[in-house]
Amino acid sequence: MERYNLIKEVGDGTFGSVWRAINKQTGEVVAIKKMKKKYYSWDECVNLREVKSLRKMNHPNIVKLKEVIRESDILYFVFEYLERNLYQLMKDRQKLFSEAEVRNWCFQVFQGLAYMHQRGYFHRDMKPENLLVTKDIIKIADFGLVREISSQPPYTEYVSTRWYRAPEVLLQSYLYSSKVDMWAMGAIMAELFSLRPLFPGVSEADEIYKICSVIGSPTTESWADGLKLARDINYQFPQHAGVQLSVLIPSAGADAISLITSLCSWDPCKRPTASEALQHPFFQSCFYIPPSLRTRAVARAPPSAGTRGALDLQGVRRYSGALPNSKLTNNFTSPKLHPPLASGVQRKLDIVNQDGIKNDKSMKTTRQPKYRPPGKDSPTSMNKGRSGRGVLETAEKLGNMSVGTRRQSMGQRPPPPPMKTGVNWIPESRNFMLRSTQQIPTGRTFTRKVAG
Ligand SMILES: Nc1ncnc2c1ncn2[C@@H]1O[C@H](COP(=O)(O)OP(=O)(O)OP(=O)(O)O)[C@@H](O)[C@H]1O
User: Which portions of the chain have biased composition (kind: Polar residues) (predicted)?
Assistant: First the structure.
């Protein structure tokens, strides 16, 4: 760690604090995540999901893990640095993003997701804070909860941040899939358009209530498996007709509404895959630029979601035309805006901003209340879903609360050193190496609050 100068703490997550740092040798700016838990052997470290999955991923829209360092039983991840996360961008925003901006970001994120899912992983904690942005480029970060698709269910940890949590996870299905990331993307897309969360539940039960209020309660047609899942735990969905998303998100065009609708389908099977989403008409004006061409492209066009200006790039493939399925149809029927949806949400943010200034004021935009997303439901970030709670307890909790509450490039590297205690390494795909340091001071703690 003596190779790095730590500049400033830029994030404080469940598992670690993140610092902006500079590599003294190369001058490169990096992000260093100092894990909160202690690691007493390398074996423990290499088995971490974040390490195992990120080692295998090399994609322009997935944050690069450059190096892993273990020193004095503290584990540090060295990532490429990105300027801001999407939540920070939205929080500071005074006017709505243009559709072109939303399209460009989403196109890139879906490319990252398509790559990840095709490589056999799903993220499980997609949220604006985990999408990092530098200029036009957006990358998926935080692989702490990533899962191998081939891993055997049941998945007993209760994952993801509430507002972006898929209904099957809320209902504690043992069998969820990469489609949980697609649900989250629907919610994130809507939020990018409106600068307010689509399903801002204040509890798990309220989360389901909010979802029902917006997309209408599930039916046999829309999610037969979900009704069965609910029956199995003795849970009754609150009954709502739903609203027109186009009314709720007036700044989104018809194609965007169609894609959000499709992503936020009750039934995971009815949500498009990431690759299918890339083919949606919403992205008709986007051009896929293969990663190998992106360095060349970057000087002339946004790197991942090319605009028409990128047409002359060699090797550019155009996605166009509608998907040949009915999943993309907006099938909302009720024009009635449910009262909770109109009320908005008031939250407080208590976090250090980019300039290191602690901000605990209520966040407000000119158009709607600013907000602070919830943390995960437990301090450890994962609730032990079924292991700590029986299904009856879960149903009771959901029932009681819903009814009546209204419901990261390194230069030349030496060959990989042997992995042993006290030796640091860099993932194989990016070469390994190790040093030692003590430079990261004990992390300060920032608290986040959700007001009211
Ligand atoms: N590569 C990076 N470049 C710049 N900032 C980063 C980087 N990685 C993380 N951050 C910042 O640190 C925050 C927390 O990082 P991260 O999500 O990896 O930590 P975590 O402990 O896993 O958090 P969580 O509570 O979401 O699980 C991010 O929201 C982001 O603002």
Answer: 402-411
d(CA 259, CA 30): 35
Beta bridge partners of 71: 74
Instruction: Delineate the domains of the chain, giving CATH numbers in brackets.
Output: 4-81+327-358 (3.30.200.20), 84-286 (1.10.510.10), 372-416 (no CATH)
Question: Six-digit token pair at 423?
Answer: 């030796």
Tokens of 3: 């190779």
pLDDT digits (tens, 9 = 90+) for 346-393: 222 222 222 233 332 233 333 344 445 555 443 233 333 333 333 334
- Are the CB atoms for 60 and 409 separated by under 8 Å? no
d(CA 159, CA 165): 8
Q: Are the C-beta atoms of residues 195 and 104 closer than 8 Å to each other?
A: no
> Ligand 1 centre and the CA of 130: distance in Å?
6
Q: Which of 43, 73, 92, 125 is catalytic?
A: 125
Q: Which two tokens stand for residue 245?
A: 């998303």
| Per-residue model confidence as pLDDT tens digits over 211-238 | 999 999 999 999 999 999 999 889 999 9
The verdict on the CB of residue 78 being under 6 Å from ligand 1 is no
Which of these, 328, 98, 276, 273, lies nearest to 195 by C-alpha position? 98
Q: How confident is the model at residue 10, as a pLDDT?
A: 94
Q: What atom of ligand 1 comes closest to residue 127's alpha carbon?
A: 26
Residues 142-169: tens digit of each pLDDT: 876 665 555 555 454 545 689 999 999 9
Note the pLDDT of residue 318. 34
Evaluate the CA torsion angle 111, 325, 128, 18 in order and state its sign: negative
Q: Is 255 a catalytic residue?
A: no
Q: Is the pLDDT of residue 417 over 50?
A: no
Find the 125 Cα to ligand 1 centroid distance in Å.
12
The dihedrals phi and psi of 72, each to the nearest 5 degrees, come to: 50, 45
Question: Is the CB–ligand 1 distance for residue 11 below 6 Å?
Answer: yes
